[in-house]
Specification:
Elements: H1 6-16, H2 23-33, H3 42-54, H4 57-68, H5 72-77
Length: 85
């Protein structure tokens, strides 16, 4: 998968598992895990979900490519994330 397909894949997964990815279900899951350490804060994840719901694929994919530079693996390694061919 390339970063150019990320938004499409995300929407397919959310449609296939619609019940799990409803905002209410996601917030309930977050409440269960909120005392545990997380890579990113809740507003970051909610922002991505809202973006995938309301913005076109091309914009979501562009934002995703920018955010990959700040991914957890890039931060841990101290290098930029690399996209697989």
């Amino acid at each position: 998968m390339t970063s150019g397909q990320h938004a499409q894949l995300s929407r397919i997964i959310r449609k296939t598992h619609a019940r799990t990815y409803r905002y209410r279900s996601l917030l309930a899951t977050w409440r269960e895990w909120r005392d545990k350490r997380s890579t990113y804060p809740l507003p970051f994840y909610l922002g991505l979900l809202v973006m995938y719901d309301f913005f076109p694929y091309w914009l979501c994919n562009a934002v995703f490519r920018v955010l990959m530079k700040f991914s957890n693996s890039a931060r841990i390694k101290g290098t930029r994330a690399v996209e697989l061919p």
